[in-house]
Amino acid sequence: MKISIIGATGLVGREIIKILSEKNLINGNTIYLYASEKSAGKKLKVGSKFLKVMPLSLSTILPCDFALFSAGSLVSKMFAKEFTKKGAFVIDNSSAFRRKNNVPLVVPQINGNTITNKTKIIACPNCSTIGLVLPLFYLLKHAEIERIVVSTYQAVSGAGKKAIEDLNNGTTKKLNEPIKNNLIPQIDHFLYSGNTFEEDKMIYETQKILNRKINISSTCVRVPIQNCHSESVNITFNKPFSAKMAKNLLKNGQKIELLPLPMPTLANGSNNVFVGRIRKDYSFKNTLNMFLCFDNLRVGASLNVVSIMEYIILNKINGN
Ligand SMILES: NC(=O)c1ccc[n+]([C@@H]2O[C@H](COP(=O)([O-])OP(=O)(O)OC[C@H]3O[C@@H](n4cnc5c(N)ncnc54)[C@H](OP(=O)(O)O)[C@@H]3O)[C@@H](O)[C@H]2O)c1
């Protein structure tokens, strides 16, 4: 099998390489690394070998089975179709295709079945959305959700490697405001509605993945934490839902771990969404509060990309 990693030198790309290695998907397979012109020739450790990074251009695209894109939406828009022409399934981490009707937006354990033999491009949801929909999926086994109010505390790694420099050096090279000793209640650009694009992504993508028109109010905040996103979530159901019942459903959920206090220092490096502070909200009927924390580079990006690839292989989806 041949796997291309586009954006291999970035935070997500490097984590994809790590996860492929952890899942023993390097030995016996051919891995191609792509990044921008300025990384051409750089060598990255992939399993036990060092592989050269190729500059991405129409002339450097090699035939492959999977093209895993984590290089921003412009690069995906320019090059994803070119990889499909070379026979690849494209699994895209950017926002380029998430809203296209014919592109499945996938968290495999929830809606892997939306990938069909006709699918060529699969979109991976935004990191904040993946962490949210995983616990919601299990809670939906008991009751429908009428409304969600979610506030995020998003780590700096969510904005890529240049933002980490901003955190460490107090600069504003990537983020538009200083993040050191600060927090920024804006992620991505503002929309006409007053929401930011990040807030809108959480609303739209949650509805698409869960296939429900849930009412969602979202506020996304960048916090001066290097890695791991957290979310405070208030959920109103269509019938009574005790905290005990929610814990019982969640404790058996795949990739969910119950903890009294989910925190970035605990979630860092884990493949699970940590869920805690589950309690009744006495201010409104049929409502629960909970707090989530997860590694945005793994759970919110690279692990989901690799899990989509594994789902396609396991289910023998051929993309013809
Ligand atoms: N960070 C997260 O938690 C997260 C979560 C979910 C989704 N995502 C999405 O994943 C993507 C990557 O995020 P990241 O955090 O890894 O960003 P990053 O650390 O800034 O890395 C960006 C990567 O894209 C490459 N790149 C930039 N321009 C390119 C071009 N013209 N041609 C080829 N490669 C190019 C960079 O190569 P050079 O090193 O050569 O510049 C680098 O490898 C983004 O679309 C982001 O929205 C990120």
Task: Set out the fold topology.
Layout: E1 2-6, H1 11-22, E2 30-35, E3 43-46, E4 49-55, E5 66-69, H2 73-85, E6 89-92, H3 108-111, E7 121-123, H4 127-139, E8 145-154, H5 161-169, H6 197-210, E9 215-222, E10 229-237, H7 243-251, E11 256-258, H8 264-267, E12 273-280, E13 287-294, H9 298-314
Parallel strand pairs: 1-2, 1-5, 2-4, 5-6, 6-7, 8-9, 11-12
Antiparallel strand pairs: 3-4, 8-10, 10-13, 12-13
Helix pairs in contact: 1-9, 4-6, 4-9
Bound molecules: NADP nicotinamide-adenine-dinucleotide phosphate.
Residues 7-13, 34-36, 38-39, 56, 70-73, 75, 93-94, 127, 157-158, 160-162, 296-297, 300-301 line the site of NADP nicotinamide-adenine-dinucleotide phosphate.
Task: Write up what this structure looks like.
The protein has 320 residues and is of the alpha/beta class. It has 9 helices and 13 strands. The strands form 2 sheets. The protein has a 7-stranded mixed β-sheet, sandwiched between helices. Strand 3 and strand 4 form a beta hairpin. The chain is globular. The relative contact order is 0.15. The mean pLDDT is 97.
Main sheet overview: 7 strands, mixed
The CATH first-level class of the largest domain comes to: Alpha Beta
- In the residues, how many domains can be counted? 2
So what's the overall shape?
globular
What number is the mean pLDDT? 97
How much of the sequence is in beta strands?
15-25%
Main traits of this protein?
25% strand, 320 residues, Rossmann fold, alpha/beta, 9 helices, globular, six-stranded mixed sheet, binds NADP nicotinamide-adenine-dinucleotide phosphate
